[in-house]
Structures are given as structure tokens and as C-alpha cells.
Amino acid sequence: MRPGGLTALSIFNFVFGGIAGLLNLISLATLSAFYDKFAEQAQRQGTPMPSIGLLYALAIIAIVRAALLVTSGIGYLGTRKLIGRWFGNAYAVLALGSIFFEISQAPQQISPFNLVEFVYPLITLFLLNTVFRKDFTR
Amino acid sequence: MSLHVRTEHLKLVSGTYMRTSLRSGAGVIFLVLSMIVGLVLAGIATLPVETLQLAAKNGQSAQMAFNEAVAKFGPGVIEYFTNASPDTAKYWLADQPALMSLFLIMMLAFLPFLASLAGFNQTSGDIGSKGLRYLLLRTERANIFLGRMVATYVFTLAVVTVIFAVVAVYTVAKVPYYGTGEVLWWLLRGWFASAMFLLPWVALTAWVSAMMEFPFLSLLISELGLVLWIVITYVMGKNVDELHNAAYATPWGYKLWLLDPNPGMVLAGVAVMVAFTGVFTWLGLRHFDKRDL
């Protein structure tokens, strides 16, 4: 039987994954249109601006992360090993990795709200590998 | 009221309840929401640093801008929102790391809501489903009630500790205006204040949970009751003289005693928290002992 906590975690996955996926699709679609304006602004302020290729790569990784969140949410509901536990772990590792990468690229841009971004992948890793470790049976 | 408390039974009940609640929907929702809200509060408290660091780039010293802002707006804002005396406001803003004081004041205001989110289903779900009757063959009612209350307290305090630890690491690494020792000491005091302030609210939630047969009703009554009480004591207390001291009828009114510069006030605050915890626990136990399980 699926524990209530896994159901709650899957709902969080759908909410966070849905919102993140939608926002990142919008930013991917509008990136080229606004890049020149932002680059000009950054040059005026004397702040470094990442290349458009890197920004595209980050946006694509964010979409993959969102897709993993939603897919693993479905896996949690079905208590599936591959698309539940492993996709959930893959999301958490990818999310933590990309946050570390973003921080290493622009350490001055770290804000306390980055801490919030850290929290969900950490909780996911903790719960999937300790509390719900034996619940993925299919 | 029969009060057969056995340490071994208490340990067993609280350990089992902690494991079960972490696997439940309410436990996971509590864990995720409280971490997010706690860190957002920390974000709000340390947000001015970003603006000031931008000001530093434009030629002005960030430290100077920060001190100016704290001296100009800080005491007035703190006095208005907390009813603190000018001396206490000065202690929080000038003698202690001001941003951490802001975080602690917001955190203390958030803790009662956190406690009721953590503990609304301590007994109510099992009372509704009559599931406790199997447990009653093996242990006394007091062990179930107290064991679950202790587990809720430990779980909530663990989450609060993680929030404080993350905020400490972030502040030490990112906010350059304070000494590490100063930040850690003030946060440790804040953590102790939070640990004391959580006690009566967890006990109150245990009592409310023992009164209700439906967990959702227990949550609704705890949270709405709190909101209503805060609105009455804060908004109406400012306008109606009779309600000026109404906040002191609950632990809410004493929360900032725990951060007071005067050690006597801190001790009095601790004593009040313990007293309220005792009263709420006794009322909860009494109710749980009498009700049909």
C-alpha cells in the first residue's frame, strides 16, 4: 500500500514541476528576443553576462528537471522503482548540481531565496532514500 | 484522572509515532512547507543586504548605508510591530545582529502555526476511526497522549533546528557586517527561545487534537483560532484599551520576553512557557482520559 507521504510528495512534484516547466518554456521561447537588451544593460552596469549558449543550456536543463519532477510524481503514485525512486533521485541530483553550477558561475548573485531552491531536492533525496526506500516495489 | 506514565512505553509510543508521521501525508506537507516558509522568512530578513551591496558598487559604503538604514527606520518599525520598549528595540538592532533579530521575531510569530500544522493529527484521526482501542490493550491513555506530544515536539524542533542551521551558514558566509561568533550566539539564543515557545503550542495542539474526531477540523480550529486571536490582540488591542493586555492570556503575549536583554525577563518568559505547557497538557490529558476512544 502506498503511504500518504508519497502521495503528498507526488502532489508537490506536480505543482513544482508544472510551474517550473511552464516558466522555463516561456523563458526558452523569449530568450533570444531579450538577450541583446539584457547584454547591453549588463555592459552598462559593468556586470558579467553569460553567453546565450550557456543560458539556453541552463533553460533546457531546467525543463528536463521539471519533466523529471512530473514523471517521478507519476512514479510515486504507482510506487515504481524506475520512474518513481530513480527518476526522483535523478531530479534531486540534477537540481542540486545545477544550483551549485549557477552559484559557481555568479557567486555574487546568490540570494537567500536560493536556499529555498535547495530545500526541495534535499528533502526528496532524504525521503526517497530513507523513509520511503522500501515502498517502491513495482 | 489516571496518570500511569511509564518511560519505556513513552519512548516506544513516541518513536513509533515519529516514524509513522514522517510517512504520512501531513508529515511530508509539514516538512516541505515549514522549510520553505522558514527559509522565505530568512530571505525576507536578509534581503536588504542585496540592495546595500548594490549601493556599495555605486560608491557608497554598504556598511554605512546599512547602519544608516537600521538607525533610521529600525527602532520605529520594531516598536510598532512588537510593542517593544525603545531600549529593547535598541538592544535587538544595535547590540545584536539586526537582521538576525528581524528573522527571529518573524520566526517566533510563525512558530504557533508551525506547531499546529505539525500536531493537528496527534490523536484526532485515531479517535475518529476508533483505532486507538487496539493500543489501549497494551498501554495506558497517558502514555499514548504524552508519547505522541513528545514526538510532535521533537519532530517540530528538529525542523526548526535545520532552518536555523541553514540560516546560520548563509549569514556567516554572505552577510559581512557581523562577526561569526556574534551571529551564532544570537541564533543559538533564538533557537532556545523557539524551543521554549514551541512547548505550549504543541501542548495546545495536542489538547485540540484530543477534542476533535476529524483531523481537518482540528487543523482548521487551531489555525483559524490562532489567526483570529492574533488579529484580536494585535489590531483591536491597539484601539480598544480593554483588549490592550489580552495577548497575555496566551503564550503569544510573552514570546518576546524570551529575547529580552534582561535575563530576569528571559527566565520569567521560560517559566510562563513551562506553566502554559503544564496547563495545556493537563487539560489535554484530562479530556483524552475521559473521552470515548
Largest sheet of chain A: none
Instruction: Work out the helicity level of chain A.
Output: over 70%
Unreliable stretches of chain B (pLDDT < 50, length at least 5) are none
Terminus-to-terminus distance of chain A: 11 Å
Explain the layout of strands and helices.
The complex is a heterodimer of chains A (138) and B (293).
Chain A: H1 4-45, H2 52-77, H3 81-105, H4 112-131
Helix pairs in contact in A: 1-2, 2-3, 3-4
Chain B: H1 7-23, H2 25-57, H3 62-82, H4 86-95, H5 98-119, H6 124-129, H7 141-174, H8 180-211, H9 215-239, H10 263-290
Helix pairs in contact in B: 1-7, 2-3, 2-5, 2-7, 3-4, 4-5, 5-7, 5-8, 5-9, 7-8, 7-10, 8-9, 8-10
Concise summary:
The complex is a heterodimer of chains A (138) and B (293). With 138 residues, chain A is mainly α. Chain A contains four helices and no strands.
Q: Overview of this structure, please?
A:
Helices cover 82% and strands 0% of the residues of chain A. Chain A is built from 4 helices and no strands. The longest helix of chain A is centred in the first third of the chain and has 42 residues, at 4-45. The model of chain B has no long low-confidence stretch (mean pLDDT 85). Chain B has one domain (7-290). Chain B is elongated and about 70 Å long. In chain B, helix 5 runs antiparallel to helix 9 (215-239) and helix 7 packs antiparallel against helix 8 (180-211). The longest helix of chain B is centred in the middle third of the chain and has 34 residues, at 141-174.
Question: Keyphrases for this structure?
Answer:
heterodimer, A: 138 residues, mainly alpha, B: mainly alpha
